[in-house]
C-alpha cells in the first residue's frame, strides 16, 4: 500500500512537470492560451497522451490505497475517479483548434468529433472530482492544517474551474494560464496528501 501511495504522489508531480516543460518547448504552442490537453496533438502528442494515461493509472491505483489508509470511502473513490478520468482524457484527445497544432484554424469548430465530446466529459470529471476529494478530506483527515489546507484547496479549485470555464468559452488569451493554475493547485494538494498518507503508513 505504501509503495502505491508514493507512486501516486510521484505521478501527480510528474504530470505537472511534463506538461510545463513540454508546453514551454513545443513549437507553435502557447502555454498562456492553449489548454494542457492540446499537447496531446501534433507530432509530439504521444508525450502528453502517455502523461495522461500513465499518471492517471497510478493515481487511480493510489486512490484505491487511500481507503485502507484513511477509512474514507468518498475520499478514496473521488481520487480513483479522478485518476480514471485522466486516463480517459488521454485515450480520447481533443480536436485541433485555436491555432494548435500549427496550421489549425484559429477559431473554435462549429461541430466537435465524438472523441472530443468524450474528452470534454472526462475533463469535467477531472476538474470536479478533485475538489470533491479535497472536500471529502475535510471530513476524513485529522489535524487542523490538513483539514484547513483541504478546505481552502476545494474552494480554490471550484473557483478556478469556474474562471477557466468562462475564459475558455470567451477564447481568452489567458485561458491556458488559468487552467495551469487550477492544475498546479489541485495536483500539489493531491501529491502532498498521498505522500503524507504514505509516510503515516510506514
UniProtKB/TrEMBL annotation:
Keywords assigned: Membrane, Transmembrane, Transmembrane helix
Protein name: DUF998 domain-containing protein
Keyword Secreted applies: no
Residue spans crossing the bilayer: 6-25, 46-67, 73-92, 121-141, 147-168, 180-199
Taxonomic superkingdom: Bacteria
InterPro entries for this protein: DUF998 (IPR009339)
Phylogenetic classification of the source organism: Bacteria, Bacillati, Actinomycetota, Actinomycetes, Streptosporangiales
Amino acid at each position: 500500500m505504501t509503495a502505491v501511495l508514493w507512486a501516486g504522489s510521484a505521478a501527480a508531480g510528474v504530470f505537472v512537470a511534463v506538461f510545463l516543460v513540454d508546453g514551454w518547448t513545443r513549437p507553435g504552442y502557447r502555454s498562456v492560451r492553449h489548454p494542457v490537453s492540446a499537447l496531446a496533438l501534433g507530432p509530439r502528442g504521444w508525450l502528453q497522451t502517455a502523461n495522461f494515461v500513465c499518471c492517471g493509472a497510478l493515481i487511480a491505483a493510489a486512490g484505491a490505497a487511500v481507503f485502507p489508509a484513511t477509512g474514507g470511502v468518498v475520499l478514496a473513490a473521488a481520487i480513483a475517479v479522478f485518476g480514471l478520468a485522466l486516463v480517459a482524457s488521454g485515450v480520447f484527445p481533443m480536436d485541433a483548434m485555436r491555432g494548435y497544432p500549427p496550421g489549425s484554424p484559429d477559431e473554435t469548430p462549429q461541430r466537435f468529433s465524438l472523441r472530443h465530446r468524450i474528452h470534454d466529459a472526462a475533463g469535467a470529471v477531472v476538474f470536479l472530482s478533485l475538489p470533491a476529494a479535497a472536500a471529502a478530506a475535510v471530513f476524513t483527515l485529522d489535524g487542523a492544517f490538513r483539514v484547513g489546507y483541504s478546505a481552502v484547496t476545494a474552494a480554490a479549485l471550484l473557483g478556478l474551474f469556474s474562471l477557466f470555464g468562462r475564459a475558455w468559452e470567451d477564447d481568452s488569451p489567458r485561458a491556458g494560464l488559468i487552467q495551469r493554475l487550477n492544475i498546479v493547485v489541485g495536483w500539489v494538494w493531491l501529491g502532498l496528501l498521498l505522500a503524507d498518507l504514505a509516510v503515516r503508513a510506514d
